[in-house]
Amino acid sequence: MTAPRSTALEGSLKTMIEVFHVYAMKQGDPHSLNKGEFHALVSTELANVLADQSDRDKVNTLLSSLDADKNGEVDFEEYMSMLSSLAIKCNQLLTGAPAHRH
Ligand SMILES: [Ca+2]
Ligand SMILES: [Ca+2]
């Protein structure tokens, strides 16, 4: 017996969760991204989407804007709100930009 294969969307959800935990468990609280962990995640996993966020000051500004409870770290909910707004932005770029229309 093998486990049923995940659909593409289910696999994407799993990836979003796994990526968070791979970085969150590197230092300190294993369920939360500190500045260093967040910087590593953004610069590695979102290197193309957030290419303009590659320097530390911009990443720190991004972190402050996501940090809803102001504890200096990005928890899973805060991370998901970043991915959700990124997905909306990417969708606008993909479907709204005249250059991509045929
Ligand atoms: Ca951590
Ligand atoms: Ca926080």
TrEMBL record:
Q: Which UniProt keywords apply?
A: Calcium, Metal-binding, Repeat
User: What domain of life is recorded for the organism?
Assistant: Eukaryota
**Residues covered by the EF-hand domain:** 54-89
Q: Which Pfam families match?
A: S_100
Q: Could you give a GO molecular-function term held by this entry?
A: calcium ion binding
Check the record and name the PROSITE patterns matching this protein: EF_HAND_1, EF_HAND_2, S100_CABP
Q: Which CDD domains match?
A: S-100 (cd00213)
Keyword Calcium assigned: yes
Q: In its UniProt entry, what is this protein called?
A: Protein S100
Organism per entry: Acipenser oxyrinchus oxyrinchus
